[in-house]
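I had to read the description of the data format several times before I understood it. The format is easy to grasp once an entry is in front of the reader. For illustration, here is how one protein appears when written out as sequence plus structure tokens:
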Amino acid sequence: MNCLTFEQLDTLLCGMASVQEQMDWLAHTSDCNACAEALALRTAQLPSVKAPPIVLAKPKPTQESLAHYTLRVIAAMAAALILLFSGAFQFLGELPETLPEIQANIQTAITEFSFTDLFDFTQGGPIDASETP
């Protein structure tokens, strides 16, 4: 393949080249140092867009924002301590059931289940146990 022209480099950088052309030209630049250097120089010459000043400006911390932050941290710590020592988490000590107890509870619920307890809302009455599997 012949070296790339400036028009081809511009087409490549603007994204106007077809996918096949892009693949061919980039493959050529990986093998040809002159084209790779020309592509790098042309890329450096492209105009860049500057960020708006509002993006570049960093807000300076003020005494008021520092005071608000400190107040929020103190309020969060106080709320956490109140919840911790008020007994709001007492139920956590009662939660752990052993696996055999859980399995026994499930088994009991399954064996005590009866189709006669079901209600058919479409028929407006209990389900006929003779129709159940």
